Structure to design on (173 residues):
């Protein structure tokens, strides 16, 4: 019976990958980074329904697909994956939505922004002397705050309606 739950979780992860990729059409450039707030919303939804490891996998696959389709940049990897991990662990440990949203903002905005610097200098040809190591924090924060607000509103509405408990029960069976 555990196999059924895994198949359902994989199906939901696939749908969330599709939402993240399609949602990246709603991106906007900020200081050399392409901000895709829907990815951050997907990270929080993954944290609530699937857990941190599925969240990291969804973030990786969505970032890979966005790059393969020329809809994103290499900056998608550190921001989305670290944010998914931190907010997934935050929800796993606390079961608290505000802590999860804060984890997404901290993981993507600060930690992901810091990790984007070496990727930009090594793989994207950015001159290390021209860009400060913290240069990606501001654009990542703008994107993740917008996505976290979207996710907070969506998850709050699902909690109020009781849909979260129904969904979790469905995924577990």
């Amino acid at each position: 019976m555990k196999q059924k739950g895994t198949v359902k979780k994989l199906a939901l992860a696939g749908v969330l990958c599709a939402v993240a990729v399609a949602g990246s059409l709603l991106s906007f450039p900020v200081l050399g980074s392409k901000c895709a707030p829907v990815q951050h919303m997907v990270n929080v939804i993954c944290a609530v329904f699937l857990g941190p490891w599925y969240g990291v996998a969804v973030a990786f696959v969505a970032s890979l697909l966005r790059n393969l389709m020329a809809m994103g940049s290499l900056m998608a990897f550190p921001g989305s994956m670290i944010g998914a991990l931190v907010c997934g662990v935050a929800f796993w440990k606390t079961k608290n939505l505000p802590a999860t949203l804060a984890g997404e903002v901290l993981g993507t905005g600060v930690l992901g922004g810091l990790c984007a610097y070496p990727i930009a200098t090594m793989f994207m040809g950015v001159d290390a002397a021209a860009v400060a190591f913290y240069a990606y924090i501001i654009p990542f924060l703008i994107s993740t705050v917008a996505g976290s607000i979207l996710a907070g509103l969506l998850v709050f509405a699902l909690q109020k309606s009781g849909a979260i408990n129904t969904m979790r029960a469905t995924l577990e069976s």
User: Anything to note?
Assistant: Residues 97-123 form the longest helix (27 residues). The chain has a mean pLDDT of 88. The helical segments are 2-23, 37-49, 52-68, 76-94, 97-123, 137-161, 163-172.
